[in-house]
Amino acid sequence: MGARIAMWIAGRVGAAVILLATAAVATLVFLTSPAQPAAGPTDGLPEGKQSTRVTELMDRFASGRAESAIIVFERPGAALSEPDRQALAALRTAVTGREHVGTLPPLAYAADGQAALQVVPLQADLSDEARDSTVDGLRALLRDGTGLPDGISAQVTGGAAFGRDISAAFAGADVTLLVATAIVVALLLLITYRSPILWIVPLTVIGLGDQLVAKLLPWIGHLIGEPTDASIAGIVSVLVFGAGTDYALLLISRYREELRRTTDRRAALAAAVQAAGPAIVGSAATVILALLTLVTAVLTSNRTLGIAAAAGVAVALVFGLVVLPAALALLPRGAFWPLVPVAGSAETSETGIWARVARLVGRRPVGVLAAAAVVLAALAAGLLTTTIGLSQTEQFRTEVESVQAQQTLAAHFAAGSSQPLQVIVSTPNAQQAADIAARTAGVAAVGRPEASTDGTLTLLPVQLADESGTAGADRAVTALREGLSAGAGTDALVGGQPAADLDQRDANARDNAVVAPLVLAVVLIVLIALLRSIVGPLVLLATVVLSYAASLGAASLVFAALDIPALAASVPLLAFLFLVALGVDYNIFLVSRAREETAARGDTRAGTLRALSATGGVITSAGVLLAAVFTVLGVLPVIVLTQLGVIVGIGVLLDTLLVRTLVVPALALLLGERFWWPSRPAPRPAEINAPRPAHDADLQWKRDPAASGR
């Protein structure tokens, strides 16, 4: 960042203007933020897939896009008696008259006589709120027990019930995440700064930025034509807090360092902004560009997340590099109390744990690198146990009624009864399609056909033997599609929840293959532009990929210990994106400082060791804070967010404590001046002939070259 801009931000007038402008913009956004756009029927579905096309065609049928709830009745260990059946028939009549409930089909009884199920079709195109209230009403009716014989349980499952339970899982999520994140950040900032005052400033600034982003999300939803739901809002909030606080830690650490060099507080702040600015901007640019690679995804939910998260990080950058310095400019040096930095005092980075770590790496870079590589390889071996794909009943971390009822249903009926496939075929081919479906392995039953309003299409409900999202259901969907394509012509389409689950996993696999290389390419280009080097960026990228493999392997072992059977299909890509982009952040902070110190000292070895000791504390604090913030996602009872939080948390800790601390400095020492090839760090004009404090490890090497292993 230019010296004049930095000085203006640090000045009284500039700081006041920035803070007033921020307040004005925030007020305007808060007052004008619209409601989220209405959810469309294909939101979150992959473009061009059969399940998406079936969803688009459903409005041509009288049943429309109606969801169904399913009431499962069970008398465990005994057959339903005739009085039981009469009571269930009376209860069916009570359900028929409820608001938003369509015409009920007859009760279906299990072959073992111990259970019955009642399909409750809801009116077409209900809003989420109306659907949720209808399911709640059904559950309240059953809990009341009126007309239900003793010993019979009744629970609600089906697509509408699963949707209700997902909504309930995210109810109040914004407040829960905000409070949990704010507490974690406040605690860690208090520990980091050891000041009862200073931590309030970055927390307030970044908290305001987070709330501003929350109000911008509906605008983004309208721009891209899809609402930014609670899961996206939660991930974006964590990113804003994590990235914004990282930028704040780096800036304030450099500010404290500059305060020890001058009595002019505003000059120190301007120098800190100017020195830390390029690394912070480079870091944010890496994350933003990496997130924007998601616009190439076929899953609309991935594209929405990419755009929303990129906007969030951009706001975090502005608040961390512009608004925060303006706020600091209005505070006296005493804001650091009780550890107030005094001009001329000794650099604390020249002593302490990070100076000792730097000396260790400087003495034995080969040994340090070998030991770290063994640890990372051992953790990466956990990938051998990694499996991908969860069934619908495995999506929740806590017990919910829709899952319990689905398990009861599967014990007495075909597990796929709760959410049948929807096969749409041209009417002349309808009977042939029904015959093919009935012969397909994994199909339990073919329901009554329904003609479209113009008579040209026919809808066939097809029940599977296996639950949606399982390997058996996937095989049945694939076999049915192949059979229909060969026998009923290419006009047959297979949709419904089991097909949508399969199509989403296929889309995630495609997005993995396309987006992951794009992320690596974007990160590499940014690193080359920032460091003006080729060798260094390639080394940094390789270390981050290795860190990702180790974190995914380690997390797989954790999930196995917690009896979580597999990773959700969307988790590997999102974890890769966040870990590569955020992992490179810390390497940018370290290597940018190493380049600066190398330019000043004329030696890569001395510059790298000085950078490690100077940035070790702040980067470690930032990494621990970011890992803790991502782990906060685990407060929500949804497996996909829990898995994402755990993987990114483990990965950030590995990258912070092992890769950035040991692996990268050791590689830089072993490569020497080749690390910067083809350029060589050159000092800025102000640094030429400027005295710089010598680093302990550098002095040690000059006194005794053999002690360094050189």
UniProtKB/TrEMBL annotation:
The alphabetical list of record keywords is:
Cell membrane, Membrane, Transmembrane, Transmembrane helix
Q: Does the keyword Cell membrane apply?
A: yes
Q: Where is the SSD domain?
A: 222-330, 541-669
Q: Which residue ranges have biased composition labelled Basic and acidic residues?
A: 693-710
Q: Which Pfam families match?
A: MMPL
**Which residues fall in a coiled-coil region?**
none
Cellular localisation: Cell membrane
Q: What is this protein called?
A: MMPL family transporter
Q: Which Gene3D superfamilies match?
A: Multidrug efflux transporter AcrB transmembrane domain (1.20.1640.10)
The reply to whether Transmembrane figures as a keyword in the UniProt entry is yes
- Principal location class: membrane
Q: Which domain of life is it from?
A: Bacteria
Topology class, membrane: Multi-pass membrane protein
Family under the similarity heading? Belongs to the resistance-nodulation-cell division (RND) (TC 2.A.6) family. MmpL subfamily.
By its UniProt entry, which InterPro entries does this protein fall under? Answer: MMPL_dom (IPR004869), Mycobact_MmpL (IPR050545), SSD (IPR000731)
Q: Where is this region: Disordered?
A: 686-710
Q: Which residues cross the membrane?
A: 168-190, 197-220, 232-252, 273-299, 305-331, 366-390, 513-531, 538-561, 567-590, 611-640, 646-671
